[in-house]
Amino acid sequence: MKLTMQKAPMGWNSYDYYDTTVTEEQVKANADYMAAHLKDCGWEYVVVDIQWYAKDAGSRRSEFQYIPFGDMEMDGYGRYQPAENRFPSAAQGRGFGPLAEYIHGLGLKFGIHIMRGIPRLAAHQHLPLAGSVYTAADAADPASVCGWNPDMYGVRDNEAGRAWYDALIGMYADWGVDFIKCDDICDSWMHPAERFGGWHETRMLHEAIQRSGRDIVLSLSPGPAQIDRAWQYGKYANMWRITDDFWDRWELLANMFYRCELWQDHVAEGSYPDCDMLPLGKLGGGFGNGEWDTNFTREEQKTMMTLWCVFGSPLMIGAELTKLDEWTQWLLTRQEILKLTGNAYVGKQVERDRGHAVWSCLNESTGERYLAFFNLGEGETVISCDCSQVEQFAGAGSVRVRETRELWSGERTSAEQNVVAASVPAHGAKLFALS
What we know:
By secondary structure, the chain is of the alpha/beta class. It has helices spanning 15-18, 24-37, 97-105, 120-124, 136-139, 159-175, 198-212, 230-236, 250-263, 298-311, 326-331, 335-338, 391-395; strands at 10-13, 45-48, 109-115, 118-119, 140-145, 152-155, 179-183, 217-220, 239-241, 272-274, 282-283, 292-293, 315-317, 346-352, 356-363, 368-375, 381-386, 403-406, 412-414, 419-424, 429-434. It starts with 9 loop residues before the first strand and ends with a strand. The mean pLDDT is 96.
């Protein structure tokens, strides 16, 4: 049975700031900050992103993001280990166990990024698979590769492949891993859909997690996920990316309204279409070109947070947490808005065109109702909505609205004849609690 959760996962991921280069010291510093300043608002996962096993990560950034056949840390069974020059507590075969223990000691949860498949080097060397009679060559499918990362072969849908994933996930469970972000598995531009190994490998990962006996969130990347495979994502994974890598550009944010419309009916307990990370605050320090402040305006940042929460997406901060300014920390700690990621709150699009969008959100058990206005245009505009025409409210028998409270500003206004109206800045959003 798949892991269930009370709300979409919330946490921090190292990629948007550190790319491939994050170190143990930096992970701990971000975890310390989360525990001190964000944990009480529901932020709990600390996720080490891609190539934590690469000793030479970032050393040839002007040429490669992922150095082909670089210097990787690997055990005798072909399983990548944390690079000891970056994660010194992993020495003597301890893996991520000590770091996971540190993060658990803060009352947080620990996650890692992995690539779909099995290391190519392990297959070439015919390394044995732990606890089985098979070798890595028996599990590896040399025709199944990733188009942008050279580390892995896909895994065959056979007993050797099952043995590989059982040994791999068993090791992660022993380390104390709570969250796995698996890449090159949600979609592939390289392989025809019917030949994409990610479909059977998603199932194999899920089954290996079940056999491990540990509660582990399974997150699939990159997107865009295929809507006709929604049943597959929902059956085997807890999160799946509905977009390619999301960065701090307005055109990408505007496009997310289409994607959320497409996936809104597939948000469910333990199953969360993923809008990707929140590129806020300081970004990009590990990408070789120096850090930058998010290119999103404050209005655009509120739009992003409002949409992600009303839709019910997981929330993963991409910023370097120790450099958050006061305003960004305020943005990330609005508990009355963050709670909308809970399973009890269901968001639905009411209407959308090129200039604006309106979403409703309802908690049927408590009767709480929310209305979100989004201005997708280039100038301030008035958006209005007759709540008696909102299908979600009418279906719950809760149409009448007397007053609204805008959750970002706290401003209260009356609603005349159930109509909510507001002037919304360009690229901005307003989120109303209705009473």
